[in-house]
Amino acid sequence: MNAPRRTTLALVAVVAVLLHTQLLGARQAWRTVRRIGKGEAPRAERVRTLRAALPPRGIVGSLTSLPLTADGPHFDALTDPELHLLQYELAPLIVLKGTDHETVVVLLDGVAAARSACDAHRLEVVHDAGGGVLIARRRR
Amino acid sequence: MTVVALAAPILLGLALAAFLAPPARRPAAVALWLGLAVPVTLGAASLLRFGWLLLAGPSAPGFAALQLGAAVVVGGAAWARRQRHGAMPLPVVPETPAPRWQVALATTGALTALLALAFSAAGHPHGRSDAVMIYNMRARFVLRAGEHWRDAFSPIMTQSHPDYPPHLPLAIESLWRALGSETIAVPIAVALCSTAAIAALVGAGAALARGPALAPVALAAVVGFDAFMTRMGAGQLADVPLTTCFTAAFVALGLRERTGDDAGRAWLPVVGAATALAAWTKNEGLLFAVAVGAGLVAAGWRRGPRALAADVGLALAGALPVAVGLVTFKLLLAPDNDLFVGQASGTMAARALSPSRWWTIAAWTTHGLILMPIYVLAGWVALSGVAPGARKDPALRAVVVTLAVVLAGYLAVFLITPLPLAWQLEVSISRLLLHVWPAFVWVCVLLVRGPHDPAEPG
């Protein structure tokens, strides 16, 4: 087989794999777009509304559905997507994992779960954005 | 005013890229210049912004004027350089163009990838994981914090790796400030341009190093990595701009050797600048700088110690402006890296010698290589054959040695990481393989028999 024909065959093979993988990727991405269209975004919007009720800067604690584990707070913070969402939406506040702070933002699944977690950690709700998203303070 | 503020960093980036590598009047050379201009634009914007934040403060007026003034000065210098020395020297290659149907096929593949990329960007408009956790968050933090912008690098925010260099966050923040809006269009545009630049660098590099006939297959191969184009490209991770810098350095390294001992030296400042920009993007770039040093030595030792020292000096000259910014950041703001903090050397050695860790890394790497898909490149080399003289090619030697040192460094990091190994591999292996995917394609570009190479004997 001569060299130009080999290059042509290589191109056809590469493009065939490319089209296959990219079309699969496009299909998967399109499903994500449709899922978002069905309303998975409001959680971030609820967190965004907390900004007006929080101080402009400083440090707040956080309570999310991922508990602290034996791997330690650093690893837990690295692997907690809800903490990352809180930090992303509430910057320039610094959001840390745990309830050892005067103000704590809570992000849990549902109002009941958030309220009962506040009771368990002796926190008082001061602002409720609904859907398990709220601001709490330590009970005095 | 907004148009000027937005145009200023772009004009500065184009001027800097033209000063570093004045393009010849050929489509591939122009494409290479544009591909190089993307990381240079982002790098210059973030470095100037960093200096401005430190010296003048976030709200001081005149940042756009500074960028515009710098663009005029550098543009003038680029014009003077071109008048005096001409365009960048390039290898002598067969100029026969690829058949139009091949160009059309590769373009169709690239457009399909663009479609997947657009859907993925729409599905994750704020980016994925690290984009939310680190880069876009830090850009928001600096923009919103005003005079307290240093809080964005507070060591207590361990989840957001405050020791990571601020290239991407400050580039995004400076563009937001220019636009007067915290729009998600900016990080999306940065991610898309960085992704497109990788394709431009490899496709144009192939045309310049081997001739236009090899460019379609190189372009198709580099955009053919599903994870690369759709998940990472649209995910707004710093790994994509990092890969752009890696790719620019690899391509310039290859062109330096292919252009010839003396004329090719003009590419060395490009190698240095791209390498330093990689280090300004992510900490992996520091390892890359060591790897590029090894690649320069591997290719340049045959020219003798004096010529090798001159080569390294030219690369360092290209790296210097960025290195100043990086050292300043590491000295003034960055906390220690969590990979090494509190780790005893004995513990690290015990981890590195653990057979189970080696086994886990091997299993995940195999998984990643299958996902890449490395078999496409193996098929390309098998179908095309190896170019005559490839074994003694200094360009191939430089690129392969650099790539090998990068991969060895990544292996070493996995061996000693204090974090749970399986988790670390799961979240990072595809990103690390993304860094080197264009380099694998570039190795193939330099290695395979081209359509105009002489026939095999017999």
Helix and strand topology:
The complex is a heterodimer of chains A (140) and B (458).
Chain A: H1 3-37, H2 42-49, E1 58-64, H3 73-78, H4 81-90, E2 93-95, E3 103-107, H5 111-120, E4 123-130, E5 133-138
Parallel strand pairs in A: 1-2, 1-3
Antiparallel strand pairs in A: 3-5, 4-5
Chain B: H1 2-20, H2 27-55, H3 63-85, H4 100-123, H5 129-145, H6 167-179, H7 185-210, H8 215-223, H9 226-235, H10 239-259, H11 268-281, H12 284-300, H13 305-332, H14 345-352, H15 355-371, H16 374-384, H17 394-416, H18 421-447
Helix pairs in contact in B: 1-2, 1-3, 2-6, 2-7, 2-10, 2-11, 4-8, 4-9, 5-6, 7-8, 7-9, 7-10, 7-18, 10-11, 10-12, 10-17, 10-18, 11-12, 11-13, 12-13, 12-17, 15-18, 17-18
Name a few traits of the molecule.
heterodimer; A: alpha/beta; five-stranded mixed sheet; 5 helices; 21% strand; B: 458 residues; mainly alpha; 73% helix
Number of extended strands of chain B: 0
Low-confidence stretches of chain B: none
Large-scale geometry of chain B: globular
Sheet-strand content of chain A, in percent, reads 15-25%
Biggest interface between protein chains, with counts per chain? A-B, 50 and 66 residues
Work out the radius of gyration of chain B: 21 Å
Tally the helices of chain A: what do you get?
Answer: 5
